[in-house]
Amino acid sequence: MAIVKLEKTPARPAPLTERSVIGWMHRHLFSSVLNSILTIVTLYIVFITVRDLWVWGIADAVWIAESRRECFDINISGACWAGVLAWMDNIIYGRYPREELWRLNLGLIVLAIWMAPLWLPRVKAKILIGLSVVFLYPFMAGYLFAGGEKGIFMQIMVTAAIVCLACNTLHSIIGVSGGGGLREFLFRLPAIKDAPEMSQRNILLCLFGVSFVAVFVWQMSWNLDGVPWTQWGGLFLTLVIAGVGIASALPGGIILALGRRSRLPVIRVLSTAFIELFRSVPLITVLFMATAMFPLFMPEGIVLNKLVQVMIAVCLFNACYMAETVRGGLQTIPKGQFEGAHTIGLGYWRTMGLIVMPQALKHMIPNIVGNFIGLLKDTTLVSIIGLFDILGMLRAVSVDGAWRGLHNEPLIFGATLFFLICFAMSKYSRRLEQKLSTDHKH
Amino acid sequence: MTNSNSLETQEAREKLASAASSEVIIELDKVNKWYAEFHVLKDIDLVVHKGERIVVCGPSGSGKSTLIRCINRLEEHQAGSIVVDGITLNKNLKNIDHIRTEVGMVFQSFNLFPHLSILENLTLGPIWTRHMPKAEARETAMKYLERVKIPEQADKFPGQLSGGQQQRVAIARSLCMNPKIMLFDEPTSALDPEMIKEVLDVMVELAETGMTMIVVTHEMGFAKTIADRVIFMDEGDVVEENEPNEFFTNPQHERTRLFLSQIL
Asked: Does residue A440 sit at the B interface (CB-CB below 8 Å)?
């Protein structure tokens, strides 16, 4: 028998057991007697669970009723969703004045408009857009939500936010329609194009200044009623706390992680001590300390509001967790990358900003999003120290006169809501990872 | 060594008439370096002239990589002085950054930036440290990519290129900074045999332009072709220094003879 073949062997299709559904089931579900029994038992359990949930949650459920008593009268074996529906506004907005709800919705819409360009193709300078969201939107949203007297600082920030949002939106519209960006568009206008090069920049600055002043004057007459933080609540409050935490955790974490890797002993020791202190204490303890002890350190006469204290605590706590995640990511970057960057003359900050961080952050996406998901869920702890976040509202349903004792339905609704938000975040992080991957490993 | 081979070397050498001038560009004086307790470099004295091409060889652990890494201060020496292009290397960060823009370096492991395209790898340095306009940086980058014969790969990412191509990109990346000196730290040691030649060819072409080069390598054929001087290091000492013909045919030191007999 010849060992050497003179002709190339053509590729043949794989055997049927490798390809068909039956083959797959045979290999994975019924490969042995024990495996077959396990498969059948598991399928039975899944079937029972799904059927019971269906009957309780959908088939026998009561959607329209005035009270829990009425729910029982209609169908005692089904879920009483009527209670959740009746409380829906409270669960979402807390005790925010009903005639002012438009402010919360407007805040959400503004955020969506501001961030939408980040996902649009052909829009340039996405990093700047992202930074403007993180640094300017909070002021605008803060004023929208809290209202009250505007200080001069707040007026400037709100004006800056509005001007920035307008520029952003224009920039994005021009970008999507294929015109490059706002800058390119302005330079194509005849008045600017024909101007000498030196004054082009001045014209742009003037345009910006004029619009800034115009918006400033325009917003001076606005006056929103103050809504004290005690009336904030529900999903809205949860998202505000989590949003502030998410927006500040990453920058804070990066700074702390770099501090911990610093060559300067003072910075290194301080960062390490800070990180370890916050990481070794439960969040609930930090929250209690923040609300009970912060005021003791404050000069007399300054009364911090509880919400701000809670936000500071959440930010610091999560910055410390994020710092360790970032440090882990930094450690995955080989020394050669630093050396490569040094040999083309990049100093510390440029090496970090251009070479190391972009790669490290990409490696860290799953962990970062994991942190964010944890943060979102952890915010429910604020209900223990007396803030009516979504969990507080869900539990409040059961002490409401008409719906007394209705525990399960609101909690299941809340769990579903959390699941949807967290699952969406996790899915999105997977997509982001794939999109940003430039490894090209085959 | 067969006859025809040495003839080839002879021819190549004639083309590569030494470009060394009398101007001193690197001067090492009694340089000492320790890794914790371990004495890596011992009283190294070395003078390199502009346009000179020096090959450093020696067994592993002899300190040859450390030596050239001290020249652009990737490693810090503890005693002695190093003067590069008239600037003394010390703790002054500004001087270090300046030196690093004048001294290009090519590593064994390429150290390209995997998250940037080839073109971005090349333009990063000129744009951020030389403040070159983007269009001009791109033009320069394409010029050097053509010189290392891979202009068609400009928009790919490092991970998509072969080792030889990556190393040529790394050489081009250094050249984009328009350096006065090029350091090579075992540039072909991580490459498959068939890729070594394409990298060495690029380096020979670079030598022809009169670039000052210090090359740590085990490629003795390459050393014979381009070197003005070969330096042999052992256990932190420069044991032997000679022009290549003499170095290979008539090594003085026992240690050198042993090394050459093992490697050739």
From this structure: yes
